[in-house]
Design brief:
mainly beta, Pirin family protein, 22 strands, 0% helix, 53% strand, 7-stranded antiparallel β-sheet, Quercetinase_C
């Protein structure tokens, strides 16, 4: 089962400095049919103007993954962490018992991110933050794990949930398979390009809510960059 969610159907709000599109209910956007997908609670497609960003604000008991599509995002938190994450790279924050953080676009140009929230397996643990570069060339023609709650994914950023975030870059005509598992929840978005997923066509920034699909075959109709969450 693949439920295509066209980009034009997403909720959202344009605040001037921030143009936010929401794949699931978030802030002022509420759709009872889109409250989450398995343990995935939020997938926001944010465009952030230069010199602006999110001032310090709190989070607790949520795994928050930021995938930078263009530009860079600068993070600072109440744990003393400061980091700048560039396009193609990833940062993760396990909010745990509570943390305050800010995220700003300190760049001269626009920054575009996917921010994904996933419910944690346990609550009240000490908060943490981490970031890592993931060169787009290293995922050419294949899925690479960026963040994971599974110990076997040693090269990925750790998160505290039964999920993994993977990404691939495909040239037009290339295909890559991902063994999702029929009992898992997948949510897939092409950051760029047009693709087919098990025969379902997706345009750039469309979402696909996936269930009861043992294996995903993703084929690029044009050059594409794909992000997928595999969750309980």
């Amino acid at each position: 089962m693949i439920d295509r969610r066209p980009f034009r159907s997403l909720g959202g709000a344009n605040h001037g400095w921030l143009d936010a599109k929401h794949h699931f209910s978030f802030a002022g956007y509420h759709d009872p049919a889109r409250m989450g997908w398995g343990d995935i609670r939020v997938w926001n497609d944010d465009t952030i103007a230069p010199g602006t960003g999110f001032p310090p604000h709190p989070h607790a008991d949520m795994e928050i993954i930021t995938y930078v599509r263009e530009g860079a995002i600068t993070h600072q938190d109440s744990l003393g962490n400061i980091g700048r994450t560039e396009a193609g790279d990833v940062q993760v924050m396990s909010a745990g018992s509570g943390v305050r953080h800010s995220e700003y676009n300190r760049e001269a140009g626009t920054t575009r991110i996917f921010q994904i929230w996933i419910e944690p397996k346990t609550r009240g643990q000490a908060p943490s933050w981490g970031a890592k570069p993931f060169p787009r060339g290293a995922r050419s023609g294949q899925f690479v794990t960026l963040a994971s709650g599974f110990a076997d994914d040693a090269d990925a950023l750790p998160i505290r949930t039964d999920a993994r975030i993977v990404a691939a870059t495909l040239k037009a005509g290339e295909s890559a398979d991902y063994p999702l598992g029929a009992d898992r929840h997948g949510y897939l978005v092409p950051a760029t390009g047009t693709i087919e997923v098990n025969g379902t066509r997706l345009e750039a920034r469309d979402g696909a809510a996936i269930a009861a699909e043992a294996v995903l075959r993703v084929t690029a109709i044009e050059d594409a960059e794909i992000v997928l969450v595999d969750a309980a």
